[in-house]
Design goal:
Strand content: 5-15%
Strand order of the largest sheet: 1-2-3-4
CATH superfamily of the largest domain: Intergrase catalytic core
Radius of gyration: 34 Å
CATH class of the largest domain: Mainly Alpha
Length: 397
């Protein structure tokens, strides 16, 4: 029987002429004219003859072919079709080999419509790209467990608590996305990792803000007419967030009113109305200068492509050895409103684009306090440009 199962030799495999040669036990060598050949296993399943290719002789040695033949004959004895079983195993292996990087990119793509500007600012993806994917990106998503996640996040868990929290949140979304694709993943891995990482010691701190009395002096230094200086000036004058400002398009300005699309406002949903920003004379002058530097209608373009970044404006203040950052000017404005004016709460909060009141109250309120805010921001512009005046009182509509 041994001779019947091992009729060929490694030497004969190389020297045999074209034709079909049996090694025994259903293993055959199909030799071609060009010297190459193919291993084939013949089996009978459910009364039907099947021929299963095992690979070319250039890649599969005689010994490996015999080992494969033994394995698949055992499968046949279980009344399973070895060809179908091999395909099933391949499909399962493919599920396990989806890399986290691929899943993360697919998850991001499927969520772009939910993100501001389709996620072009990169804030959704960047926690993954910076802190997760460099170490776990090439790991099959099915193999990622809580210890992997703990090890990759532990260096920033306390030092960069908010960033680590975002990274863990994004990774959880990716694992759920993989599960929705039918992949075998542990969707509880992130919560288990959170338990392993423990309570974060770091407490979130507010973005440093410049005291409102110091704003005029800083505003005066923004005088060179560059995109960065003009962007910071308009940011200070309007009190808007940096996102809408950086993506300010000329088409959004009508006279002395800048209309920010509702979807560009932080925390807003698709049905949120647009937000109108009254522009003071000083703000209009800044816009006039910015138009001369605009590209494709965007008033604050970056040097190469796209628009000016948050980092560009922040670095200007950082290089000046300031603790304050651009976003903090919203706090400067709010403090000024509280301390130097007698502005009603609703008007003050609306000036910063905050949602005021509950859903029912907002449904019945038909004003956005545009005229009151126009007066308020005109007064703020006078303060910012170094002009002084008396405390003002605004009457709520």
């Amino acid at each position: 029987m041994g001779r019947e199962l091992n009729r060929l030799s490694a030497v004969s495999v190389k020297k045999l002429a074209p034709g079909k040669y049996a090694d025994g036990g259903g293993l055959w060598l199909y030799k071609r004219e060009d010297g190459g050949g193919q291993w084939v296993l013949r089996v009978t399943v459910h009364g039907r003859r099947r021929e299963m290719g095992l690979g070319p002789i250039a890649d599969i040695s005689l010994k490996d072919a015999r080992d494969d033949a033994t394995k698949w004959r055992a499968v046949t004895r279980q009344n399973l079709d070895p060809i179908k079983e091999r395909e099933r195993l391949k499909r399962e292996a493919a599920k396990r080999l989806h890399l986290l990087k691929e899943i993360a990119e697919d998850a991001f793509e499927s969520r772009k419509a939910e993100l501001k500007e389709d996620g072009v600012a990169g804030r959704w993806f960047s926690p993954l790209e910076i802190h997760i994917l460099p170490k776990l990106g090439k790991v099959p998503v099915s193999e990622i467990d809580q210890t992997d996640i703990r090890d990759v996040l532990s260096p920033i868990w306390h030092k960069k608590a908010e960033t680590a929290r975002k990274a863990l949140n994004r990774l959880s979304i990716c694992l759920k996305h993989a599960a929705a694709l039918g992949l075998e993943v542990d969707i509880q891995a992130t919560e288990k990792a959170r338990a392993l990482l423990g309570q974060q010691r770091h407490k979130a701190t507010n973005i440093p803000a410049m005291p409102w009395r110091e704003v005029p002096a800083f505003y005066g230094t923004l005088s060179d007419g560059t995109v960065t200086h003009l962007a910071l000036r308009l940011l200070i004058l309007t009190g808007v967030r940096s996102g809408p400002l950086r993506f300010l398009h000329d088409s959004q300005i009508n006279g002395d009113v800048w209309t920010i699309p509702g979807e560009a406002m932080k925390g807003r949903k698709d049905k949120t109305p647009d937000f109108r920003v009254p522009l003071s004379d000083e703000a209009l002058e800044v816009i006039k200068q910015a138009r001369q530097l605009s590209r494709d209608g965007f008033l604050f373009p970056s040097v190469k492509r796209g628009v000016v970044s948050d980092m560009t404006m922040s670095r200007l203040m950082e290089r000046a050895k300031m603790a304050a950052r651009p976003h903090g000017f919203r706090s400067s404005l709010r403090d000024w409103i509280a301390e130097a004016t007698d502005t009603p709460h609703d008007v003050a909060e609306t000036t910063l684009g905050h949602i005021v009141g509950g859903a029912v109250e907002r449904a019945y309120r038909r004003t956005d306090f545009l005229e009151q805010r126009r007066t308020l921001l005109a007064r703020w512009a006078k303060h910012v440009t170094g002009q002084t005046g008396q405390v003002i009182q605004l009457v709520k509509e």
